[in-house]
Amino acid sequence: MKRLIAGIAIASVGALGGMQSVSTAAAADYPARPVQIVVPYSAGGGTDLSARLLAQALEKQLGGSVIVRNQPGGGGSIGTSAIVHAKPDGYTLGTGSQGPLAMLPHYGGIDYTVNDVDYLALMGRNLMVVGVSKDAPFQDGKSFLAYAKAHPGELTVGNSGAGGANQIAMEGFALAADIKVKDMPFGGAIAAITACLGGHIQAVVASPAELLSHVRAGNMKAVLVMEDQRIEEYPDTMTPKELGVDFTWSSWKGVIAPKGLPADVRAKLLPALDKAMHDETYLAKMKELGEYIDYRPSAGYEALAKSDSVTAEKVIRSLDMYQINAKK
Q: FRET pair for 285, CA 20 to 30 Å: which of 24, 83, 123, 174?
C-alpha cells in the first residue's frame, strides 16, 4: 500500500511538473496565433485608426500577427463588454475609452464596471477647451468664471451631446467652481460650435483642434483649457488651477484586457506595448492624425480611469441621471 501511495504521489508530481512545463512553453510561444484588438466603435474613426497604427507597431514587438476587429454599438459598451468577458489568455485585447469605462456604467444598463478590466497602457487623450464667441461678455477665464458666478444658471454652454464627455467636462468644472451653467446639447461638437459662432449660445466645450481655426480667425476666444498646465496650441488660455479650481478633464483611450491574464503573458505584453507606443513610425503617424499622445503604463492608466469614474459619478448624480438606463 505504501509503495502504491508513493507511486501515485510521484506520478502526481510528475503530472504537475508536466502541466507547469506546458504552461511555461505556452507562455514562451505567445503569441502562437493572431492577437485581436477589439475596437468598440465603427471603422474609420479616431479610435479605430489609432488602434490600427498600434497593431502595426505591436506586431513588430510580439513577432506575431495583430488584427483589429470593430464591434460598435451602445456608445462603445457592446464592444467593451465583449472585451471584459473574453477569455483572459492574451489573445483578445481592446481599446478602453473613457465613455464606456468611466461614464456609461453610471447611467446603468451595463454589465461591467470600471473595476472589471486590466488596464495595460494609455495611448492618448483628447483635451477639452471652452471657447466663447467674440461678442460674449467675457473674453478670458477670470471674466468667464466671474460672469457665471454673477448669473447663476444663465450661462449657456454647448456640448456635443447630452451625457457625453463634453457635458461632463463643463458640469464637472461647475461643481468644482461652485457655479451653475445651462447645458445646451447638440448633435456633435461642430453643431455646437456653429451655434456659438452665431451667438445662439455663449460658450462651447470642444477639442483644441475643433476650435483652432475659429480662434485664429478671431471669431472665437479660448477662455479655459481643462488641464493642469497650459497647452502649446493655446499658450494664453488659463487652466482651472489658475482660477483656483481643482479640476481637470479630458477624454482618453488605451489598451485593456480581460482580468485574469496569466502573469507571464502579461509580463510579455506590457513591455511590448511600451516599445510599440514609443515606436518612431507609430508616433509620427499618430501626430499626423492629430492625436494628443500621452503614454502611461498600467498603473497610471488605471488611476486615471478610476479617478474619472469618481468624477463622472458625482456629475451624473448631480444631473439626476444616475442609473437612468437601469432596467426597472
A: 83
